[in-house]
Every structure is written in C-alpha cells, then in structure tokens.
Amino acid sequence: MPKRFVPPNDDVCEVLQQRLYDLIDLASHAKQVHWTVQGREFLALHQFFDNVNAELNEHADIVAERIAALGGQVKGTIQAAAKDSHLPDYPLDVSSAPKHIEAFSSSIFQLKMLVRASAKLVADLNDNGSADLLSELSRKIDEISWMVGAQMEPKTREAT
Ligand SMILES: [Fe+2]
User: Which of 35, 41, 90, 108 is deepest in the core (most CB within 10 A)?
Assistant: First the structure.
C-alpha cells in the first residue's frame, strides 16, 4: 500500500495560519461596524458590513481548510486570532459612519498588504495551490477595500 503523501508544508501552513488570524479578526471588525454604526446611512452600512463579515468568514473557511488539507493543525478560535492578529485594534468607542469607514479602511489596508506579500511568499515556496488561493483572497480584499473606500466622503477619500 503506498504511503500517504504528506508534503513538507510547515512554512506554507504557517503563512496561511497568520492570514487566518487576520481574517477572523477582520470579520469581527465588520460585525462591530454592523452592530454599532449610526447615522443617515445606517441601513446601507449595517447591511453592507454584514455581507463583508459573511465574505470574510467564507474566506477564513477556505484558508483554514487549505491548512487542514496540507496536514497542518488549524488554530481557528477567536482567542488565538486576538492574540496573534496583525491588524490594528479596532476602536470600540466609534459609532459615526465616517469614523467606522476610516477605521475599517485602515484594518483592510493592512490585510491587503499582508495577503499580497503572503501570496508571493508561498509562490516562492513552490506551493502554487496556496498561491492561487491567496491571489483569489487578494482580489476579494481589493474589492471589499474599494467598496469601503467608495463610501468615504470624496473630501476624506482625496486626503488619504
Ligand atoms: Fe445582524
């Protein structure tokens, strides 16, 4: 009987695990906006950030299952993510839409940079499957980032 092939993917799993922490964290940032945003655009932002939370959770699931498929041990609790996330702490005293957009934009910008670097890193480690997965994630993060940024008042957007 052939031996089960377990590729030596510890480095790739570690890169994926780091991004999983960030995705779990960012998904919670989106829920924080969903629950606390106030103002004239409440309904649109409340619904938008619920969708963002769902999309981030979906991608966290894909990343976690890739780690499992590579033979790694997934660490997927909120406690683990809170300890090792690379994102800035989300402000808990914010309710106005512009402040939420600003705070979320800074979180997602951080993740955007990290995912791009991670895609390159795993490609250099010759794991094209994981590189594809992270490129797909990178496109999704770009899309969410654009949609969040487009909700900034034009003046704020031009200043950043
Ligand atoms: Fe809800």
Answer: 108
Say which DSSP state 152 is in.
Answer: S
Beta pairing partners, 96 = 38
Domain boundaries, the chain: 10-159
CATH number corresponding to 10-159 = 1.20.1260.10
Query: Tokens standing for 58?
Result: 């979906």
pLDDT (tens digit per residue) in 96-133: 999 999 999 999 999 999 999 999 999 999 999 999 99
Which amino acid does the sequence have at 124?
D
Rounded distance from Cα 35 to ligand 1 centre (Å): 7
Cα–Cα distance measured from residue 54 to residue 47, given in angstroms and rounded to the nearest whole number: 11
CA of 155 relative to ligand 1 center, distance in Å:
30
